[in-house]
Design goal:
33% of the residues lie in helices and 19% in strands. The protein is globular and about 55 Å long. It has a six-stranded mixed sheet with strand order 2-1-3-5-6-4. It has a six-stranded parallel sheet with strand order 9-8-7-10-11-12, with helices on both faces. The protein starts with a strand and ends with a helix.
Amino acid sequence: MKKYLIIGNPLSHSLSPDLHKYWFKKNNISASYQANEIKDNELEIITTRIRKKEIDGINITLPYKKMIIPFLDEIINDAKDTNSVNIVYLNEEDKLIGENTDVYGLQAGYFNKIIEKNKNYKALVLGAGGVAPSIIFALIKSNVADITLSNRTYEKSLFLKSRFPKIKLVKWNEINKNIREFDLIVNGTSLGLKNGNEFDFLFNDVKKNLIYIDTIYNPLQTKMIKHLKKKNIKTFNGLDMFIYQGQKSFYLWNKINPEVNDELITLLESKIK
């Protein structure tokens, strides 16, 4: 039986085991998938177990998407451009490979559907943590050139500015001053997460045709999403990104592209309380 894990801390919110177990069953694959909440000093232990083929692959979530990189032989594709890894596996040469499927998740879940060609979008990305480089790079790949980043700690956003020099920075307490100029806002912070902190402000003076995307999927409707829905703003929660990043992970491990269907979405939504 194949063995897969998701590692991170905390992991109580993760639906990854439910997602992959559903696809294993649908595709007649004998495999297990478990959530493994770890400490920083366990990264080397986990990667060594993959090298020994005791584990077939892992997904990585906060706070380890960057911290795992020194333990890998190579990072490729979108992971190289974002310096962010959320899937690890052994390749045919037994090299430990890190990839990023978050970028694909963002594109397949949202940007490929909502971003129109030949339209100049102004995007605002909130947060400079684990998912932020993937959001920025997915926007760039989707031909969005005008990207502004804001983070609660301004200094942390400077690192992303060095990686993506064309992005603009705005201080957190100045976001609302020019909020009306943005066509697209993507929340990559943990603000709004179940049992977590909330935004200490709400977006009010926004464009009527604004699109707001939250990478959080628990709850399905954050306080900000509920607020914007009352203004008839088009909003998306983080479930689509989660499902499609998982779809690509499943493909990289099993060379099967699993189906995303209503049954799966209903199952996942039922797990979110």
